[in-house]
Amino acid sequence: MSVMNWPDCSKPHWIQCILTTTKSLSALTKGQFNAPTINEVAVVIVGENVESRDIVLKRRDDCRLQRVYETHRSYDALQYPLMFCRGEDGYHFNIKMVNPTTGEETNKKVSSMNFYAYRLMIRLDVDNHLLRYRRLFHQYCVDMYVKVQTERLNFIRFNQSKLRSDEYIHLLDAIATEGHAANIVCLTILPATYVGSPRHMHEYAQDAMTYVRNYGRPDLFITFTCNPKWPEITNLLLPGQTSSDRPDITARVFKQKITVLMNYIVKQKVFGAVSGWMYSVEWQKRGLPHAHILLWMFDKIRPDQIDSIISAEIPDKQTDPEMQITNTIPNVFKKI
């Protein structure tokens, strides 16, 4: 583990962890505790509060150090000089939204998520050079994602009164137990709208339990896995790139595929009338997502009907030509 501290900083802003192994594994643990074979980009944030990340520069005229914070317009060019060799401005707070019909600026400001989503888009008439940097592009995406999450957390932290966090039941219970609020530490409450927060995960878990309580056990469990050889992915790759170099394409294509799949199951009723459904998306190594889908059917499936539903073979081009149309119907592998 290597830790890098900037001058006049009490805590490290970045920690880079490298996991290696030199010991041979026994036959019992082989395949369980192997070192990762794929290098992936990740960020480890130290501390409970997300502190501001910055760059420390040394001026040419003197030996003084100057900080450039992550919300400064020059942060992206200083942190990634290869990607922004001309010193293009990055995200800052003073970017105004533009009315697409009139072209005039509005009073609303552009968020960091909207700004970087705009930068990562694929345009037919413009060559987006950011999409050609492979691993550096991965680092850039992870870095900017942390910036987006930091902006969201700061908004929640400084707008607790608007979120009415003082009315949460646990805070009221703590005040009632202590008798007074003098010893209650001022905490930042994450609402359920913040994706990944404990309240958000608890809300989804309660929704899942409600399905089971109302509809009983699910009838079908379907696993839908992303295929990096899908033509929708390979056709958009630049020369010399693989699917692991473009997680943006993989995520967008998988989102469209899972939407088409759910419409095929629920609206076209390929398994019958569906009374309820839910799915969860997980991400594997190399950035390949897969979804676990639960289905509740109006007509319960009997044990003697299982063999007519389960399919464990690749569709044949001659007998099942409709399953080869990847643009409209994705290949589905079903299992109970």
Contiguous low-pLDDT stretches (5 residues minimum) are 1-19, 326-336
What's the overall geometry? globular
Say how many strands there are.
10
Overall mean pLDDT? 78
Helical stretch tally: 7
Number of domains: 2
Largest sheet, strands/sense/barrel: 4 strands, antiparallel
Gyration radius, to the nearest Å?
Answer: 25 Å
Helix content: 25-40%
Report how far apart the termini are. 44 Å
The largest sheet has its strands arranged as 8-9-7-10
Global structural class: alpha+beta
Beta-strand content bin: 15-25%
N-to-C series of helices and strands: EEEEHEEHHHHEHHEEE
3D structure, described in words:
There is one protein chain. The protein starts with a strand and ends with a strand. Mean pLDDT is 78; it is low at 1-19 and 326-336. The strands form four sheets. Strands 8-9-7-10 form a four-stranded antiparallel β-sheet, with helices on both faces. Strands 1-2 form a two-stranded antiparallel sheet. It is globular and about 85 Å long. It has helices at 75-79, 112-119, 135-158, 169-178, 198-215, 231-234, 247-266; strands at residues 2-4, 14-16, 54-58, 65-69, 96-98, 105-109, 220-225, 274-283, 289-297, 333-335. It is an alpha+beta fold. The protein folds into two domains: 2-153, no CATH class; 198-335, no CATH class. A hairpin with a 6-residue loop joins strand 3 (54-58) and strand 4. 26% of the residues lie in helices and 15% in strands. The longest helix has 24 residues, at 135-158.
